[in-house]
Amino acid sequence: MTPAAPAYRRLSVEERRSQLLDVALSLFAIRVPEDVSLDDVAEAAGVSRPLVYRYFPGGKQQLYEAALRSAAEELRQCFDEPREGPLLPRLGRALDRYLVFVRRHDAGFAALLQGGSVVETSHTTAIVDGTRRAAAEHIYAHLGVDEPGPRLRMTVRMWITAVEAASLIWLDEDRQPPADELRDWLVEQFVALLTVTAGRDPQCAELIRGALAAEL
Amino acid sequence: MTPAAPAYRRLSVEERRSQLLDVALSLFAIRVPEDVSLDDVAEAAGVSRPLVYRYFPGGKQQLYEAALRSAAEELRQCFDEPREGPLLPRLGRALDRYLVFVRRHDAGFAALLQGGSVVETSHTTAIVDGTRRAAAEHIYAHLGVDEPGPRLRMTVRMWITAVEAASLIWLDEDRQPPADELRDWLVEQFVALLTVTAGRDPQCAELIRGALAAEL
């Protein structure tokens, strides 16, 4: 089949794929995944339906997973923060970027994390879990911890989950409180959870006395 | 169709339904939902396959949702705690019962919360969300708060999500730390999160100065 109308300009295969994923992500940001068809993507991208099918022969599910992978990659870049300067502002800057990401992907972010979506599969769950693990690894690296013990790991993973919950509520409540206030609040919660764990765990106690001492 | 073999003793319709759900929940506790068939339930319950189908004509998905509803009801009962005596021990006792529940439902609890399961639907998600809301309502009631503001609500919901994350890690790590230690740790985290929020929110500040003052 030949596309009904040629695209405005010739894109390389990689550029086209990336354009289609961007368009798909912008649709997922405003509609639940179930309501985004390949036709919608074709229309929004100004390309023919067969072209979209050529890139995503597996249909909607393939498109969704590819878009999710692309978003996950973007999210991992949010975590990239130079290991320089005080620790808590580093965490704050990563959270700033994270909240911009959440705001941009809006409905798509919420649908993914809220579960119960027909496009949710063991693949999508694995992508989300991989991103959570990456976030935790970044935190250990910034804290200067090579081998996080079970208490530190549990604390960090609980905080990451709590941050996700906060993001969903934040979207639901028209992004209140303002992003910078939410960011500071989340950083304070991180410190509070680590401080509580320090009472039960030598590794966390050492972090509070050492790496974080100057900032508390 | 007539059952191949009569059950050992005659149960009322309600008793039989409840027996089948108990058996199903005990299977879901050790296997992922995808691997539990109505045949397995019939075999484990010592009843005929047609009998199980008579109770759950919608098949596996109907059985799963009914079992989940039954477990959700059981979990709500864990939250029931007399409104007497110091607040933090009340929270501790509810958490004790919750951790017994988590341990008993083990794999089924994990599969449900981890997402990506083929039996997860908007129905199952609604049941889980309803249970989370019930947990939050119990907490507001014990705190003596009629109208929780947005900060308190976000704090309580973040803590509930963090508790779920901790339960999953706990199951994954052969239930370490021991339940009573985990319970105390989670109570301390609750206080720490509320204390952090108190710095930003008059309602939480009042709770720390008032209802919780004697216990901190």
Describe this protein with a few key phrases.
homodimer; 216 residues; mainly alpha; Arc Repressor Mutant, subunit A; Tetracycline Repressor, domain 2; 2 domains
Describe what this molecule looks like in 3D.
Chains A, B: Residues 14-74 form the HTH tetR-type domain. The structure is a homodimer of 216-residue chains. The first copy, chain A, has 216 residues and is an all-alpha fold. Chain A folds into 2 domains: 13-60, Orthogonal Bundle (Arc Repressor Mutant, subunit A); 72-215, Orthogonal Bundle (Tetracycline Repressor, domain 2), CATH 1.10.357.10. Chain A has helices at residues 13-28, 38-45, 49-55, 60-79, 87-114, 122-143, 150-172, 179-198, 202-209. In chain A, helix 4 packs antiparallel against helix 5 (87-114). Chain A is elongated. The model of chain A has no long low-confidence stretch (mean pLDDT 92). The A-B interface holds A 114-116, 120-126, 128, 150-151, 153-154, 157-162, 164-166, 169-170, 173, 176-177, 181, 185, 188-189, 192-193, 195-197, 199-200 and B 114-116, 120-126, 128, 150-151, 153-154, 157-162, 164-166, 169-170, 173, 176-177, 181, 185, 188-189, 192-193, 195-197, 199-200.
Mean of residue pLDDT values of chain A: 92
Helix content of chain A: over 70%
Strand content of chain A: under 5%
Quote the CATH topology of the largest domain in chain A: Tetracycline Repressor, domain 2
* Structural class label of chain A: mainly alpha
Oligomer: homodimer
Organism (chains A, B): Streptomyces antibioticus
Pfam families (chains A, B): TetR_C_46, TetR_N
Protein name (chains A, B): TetR family transcriptional regulator
DNA-binding region (chains A, B): 37-56
